[in-house]
UniProtKB/TrEMBL annotation, chain A:
Keyword NAD: no
Subcellular location: Cell membrane
InterPro entries on file: ABC_transp_permease (IPR001851), LivM-like (IPR043428)
Record membrane topology: Multi-pass membrane protein
Keyword Membrane part of the UniProt annotation: yes
Entry protein name: Amino acid/amide ABC transporter membrane protein 2 (HAAT family)
Source organism, top-level taxon: Bacteria
Keywords per UniProt: Cell membrane, Membrane, Transmembrane, Transmembrane helix
One Gene Ontology MF term: branched-chain amino acid transmembrane transporter activity
Segments traversing the membrane: 82-101, 108-128, 155-175, 208-230, 242-267, 279-299
From TrEMBL, chain B:
Taxonomic superkingdom: Bacteria
Molecular-function annotations in GO: ATP binding; ATP hydrolysis activity
Domain called ABC transporter: residue spans: 6-248
Keyword Nucleus tagged: no
Keywords: ATP-binding, Nucleotide-binding, Transport
Any Pfam family: BCA_ABC_TP_C
SUPFAM superfamilies to which the protein is assigned, alphabetical: P-loop containing nucleoside triphosphate hydrolases
This protein's name: Amino acid/amide ABC transporter ATP-binding protein 1 (HAAT family)
Keyword Nucleotide-binding belongs to the record: yes
A single cellular component GO annotation: plasma membrane
Cited InterPro entries: AAA+_ATPase (IPR003593), ABC_AA/LPS_Transport (IPR051120), ABC_transporter-like_ATP-bd (IPR003439), ABC_transporter-like_CS (IPR017871), BCA_ABC_TP_C (IPR032823), P-loop_NTPase (IPR027417)
Length: 323, 255
């Protein structure tokens, strides 16, 4: 195993990311968005990389977190910790329901079911505009405040999200290292055998869904507070797709790969969109390149770089962890 | 406790309109080595699938220690004490050999594994069982290799080890020697005979040398039905069995 895949290395890389982003980025908003998507993508990776489930439903949970924050903060001014906890619980509950129905089928049919649910929830949100604000979304979602001062400046909210990110990432590392996480790997490898040696595999998949849904909704709530809106687009199918693309670009064999994936996508989108309005086309090319030449994603590249630098006793430069 | 570990009555399995298994009555004595033989397509593996719960019985009933388990799910049956190996090697190829066995040992207490905060190493018993099985199968030198990188013989041994790690009362082995070299076959024969001391062993085998040597009881199947049953010597000389096998397959001597 590559030393970078060890749990403490993963955690250290996550901490490093949190500390390094402010040094390189001018925009606190962009840096915060990267961290939010990093945890959401890592949660998607728990399903794709660890359990072997390609879920198109991640946008549902993200959107639900967004609406929980939007509704609770604009209408009832619920305390933020409660909002975040509520988002996670509702995210987990929804993911359990979606998962419970979807894992009855395997392969393509499973994917199609999650896709169908994603459309379903979008139209529910669109239709019940009294609750969700429909096309306009919910405007005026306030930032949280700590010690009486609202975190209105981008970098103060970044700090808040950074703490959440590190905590969530540590939690996900713990999950993947646990006997539960290792059973998920077994289910991904050979579900029939996992069942034959006594594991109720559906229950394990369901729990993976619940954890993934909780983290994704948590991230959705943070996102609503970041941009001050709970938009309909957060529950759109497009968000599911975005999260999946980031997961695949980053590489599904390690949790930190997801952080790379989210960072790479958002930074590239930010850079390209100022250069050319049709930047999505270029992004398509990037995705094709990853699919053809980098099947282990950016993380695979990092691992190879690390091997080059350290295993062949070359000058001990910093490992190639930049995008 | 009765003397019968596993018993079926009128067991049948249908795949669509095809009767893969019909009217099978089996009685497997505790701590015996009971083998199932028969030509290809006789329903031997289907019988195993039905016994382990991988496929549902469409008729009849299955009892483990007198308890009806016909409607019990496959993972529940592991907890009740049935474990199996597969005819086609079915491992976790990208996990280490030791991890394969640890998982198999953990499979008896799967609810523990649902706790996402519990470390895998916290289950010392599972680790101890994994190491014990590694020792018994003489796989220690390769215990940290990925299962997919092992040689065929090693994979076949691990396949049997996966069933052993569940510490079952009844162990079902589906062609444990398939594709093995001569030396490996001899070791497997010893192992199966050994297993018969602390487990009830039910195994499917084409190698008549092994079957006739180490079985306490032999059941011959053909076309989804039980043809003959008895001690090895009696089965070997049965004219019906000779005919089913076209007379030329049962050549193994009784040691």
């Amino acid at each position: 195993m590559n030393p970078l895949d060890k749990p403490y290395a993963q955690l250290a890389l996550a901490l490093l990311t949190v500390l390094v982003l402010p040094l390189f980025l001018k925009s606190g908003i962009l840096a915060t968005e990267i961290l939010i998507f990093a945890m959401v993508v890592a949660a998607c990776n728990l399903l794709l990389g660890y359990t072997g489930l390609l879920s198109f439903g991640q946008g549902i949970f993200f959107g639900i977190g967004t609406y929980v924050a939007g509704i609770c903060l604009t209408r009832w001014s619920v305390p933020v910790p409660l909002v975040l906890a509520g988002a996670a619980v509702l995210g987990a509950a929804t993911a359990t329901l979606v998962g419970w129905l979807s894992i009855r089928r395997q392969g393509v049919y499973f994917v199609m079911l999650t896709l169908a649910f994603s459309q379903l929830f979008y139209f529910v949100a669109y239709t019940f505009s009294g609750v969700t604000g429909g096309d306009n979304g919910l405007l005026g979602v306030p930032r949280p405040s700590v010690g009486g001062t609202a975190l209105n400046s981008p970098w103060s909210y970044y700090t808040f999200v950074a703490v959440c990110f590190v905590a969530v990432f540590a939690l996900l590392v713990m999950v993947t290292q646990s006997t539960f996480g290792r059973t998920l790997l077994a289910i991904r490898e050979n579900e029939g055998r996992a069942a034959a040696i006594g594991f109720p595999t559906k229950l394990f998949k369901l729990e993976a869904f619940a954890i993934s849904g909780a983290v994704t909704a948590f991230g959705g709530a943070l996102h609503a507070m970041l941009i001050g809106v709970a938009p309909l687009s957060n529950i759109e199918y497009h968000t599911s797709e975005l999260i999946l693309i980031m997961t695949i670009i980053g590489g599904s064999s390690s949790l930190f790969g997801s952080v790379l994936g989210a960072g790479f996508y958002l930074l590239l989108a930010d850079a390209l969109s100022t250069v050319w309005p049709r930047w999505l086309l270029l992004l398509g090319l990037v995705l094709v390149t990853v699919a053809l030449f980098l099947q282990r994603g950016l993380w695979g590249l990092v691992e190879r770089g690390y091997d080059l630098v350290f295993r062949r006793e070359r000058a001990p430069e910093t490992p190639a962890e930049e995008h | 406790m009765t003397d019968i570990a596993l018993q079926t009555r009128g067991l049948g399995v249908k795949y669509g309109n095809f009767h893969a298994l019909a009217e099978v009555d089996l009685q497997i004595r505790r701590n015996s080595v009971h083998s199932i033989i028969g030509p290809n397509g006789a329903g031997k593996t289907t019988l195993f699938h039905a016994l382990t719960g991988r496929v549902r019985a469409s008729s009849g009933r299955i009892e483990l220690d007198g308890r009806d388990i016909t409607d019990t799910s496959d993972d529940d049956r592991v907890r009740l004490g049935i474990a199996r190996s597969f005819q086609v090697t079915s491992l976790f190829p990208n996990l280490a050999l030791r991890e394969n066995l640890r998982l198999a040992a953990q499979g008896r207490t799967p609810w523990q594994a649902l706790a996402p905060w519990r470390r895998a190493e916290a289950n010392a018993e599972a680790l101890a069982i994994a190491d014990e099985v590694i020792e018994r199968l003489a796989l220690a030198p390769v215990s940290n290799r990925l299962a997919g990188e092992l040689s065929h013989g090693q994979q076949r041994r691990l396949e049997v080890g996966m069933a052993m790690a569940a510490r079952p009362r009844v162990i079902l082995l589906d062609e444990p020697t398939s594709g093995m070299g001569i030396d490996d076959i001899e070791a497997m024969k010893q192992l199966i005979r050994d297993l018969g001391r602390d487990h009830t062993v039910l195994f499917i085998e084409h190698n008549m040398g092994i079957v006739m040597n180490i079985s306490d009881m032999v059941t011959v199947m053909r076309l989804g039905r039980k043809l003959v049953e008895g001690p090895p010597a009696q089965v070997r000389d049965d004219p019906e069995v000779q005919r089913a096998y076209l007379g030329n397959m049962i050549t193994g001597d009784i040691a």
